[in-house]
Amino acid sequence: MNALDRLALELSTLGPVGRIPQAPGTWGSAAALLLAPWIFLPLPLWGRLLALAGILVLGTWAATRAETVLGATDPGCVVIDEVLGQWTALLPFAAPSLWTLFAAFVLFRALDVAKPWPIRLVERSLPKGLGVMADDLLAGALAGALLFVLSLAQG
User: Fold this and answer.
1) Are 144 and 104 in contact (CB under 8 A)?
2) Phi-psi region of 129 (alpha: psi -120 to 50; beta: other; left: phi over 0)
3) Is residue 118 part of a domain?
4) Cβ–Cβ under 8 Å, residues 84 and 52
5) Is 108:143 a contact under the CB 8 Å cutoff?
6) pTM of the predicted model, to two decimals?
7) How far apart are CA 123 and CA 49, in angstroms?
8) Is position 15 within any domain?
9) Structural domains of the chain, count
């Protein structure tokens, strides 16, 4: 394994997070949620959008390379997609309450695990790392939209 392969594996698994044996996707989402108030949420909207675009590009590369190195399609240890999805769910909120953070986590995880239409279609239709990343991007966008509508309804 060369240095780029090692870098791709470290990035795609968030280091040790993706190697947690039970529910690595949930742990990846939890790590993203814990980091969001310090890394993602303080950014202005354009900065958050730029961060998501960067994660999409780097994550697609890393996930594609990880699939090749590991010889598996969408390996469970690849959790960079959870960062993209979880942070996308938080995109509409500059300073979310603890309730909003918790709800974003639950909604994103539920959509990511259940993969209702069109999330599963996106995952299956796009090749390699792009499919890995895009289904979580869509799950996060749907979770964020639902949460935003709920927050508007609460006043």
Assistant:
1) yes
2) alpha
3) yes
4) yes
5) yes
6) 0.96
7) 22
8) no
9) 1
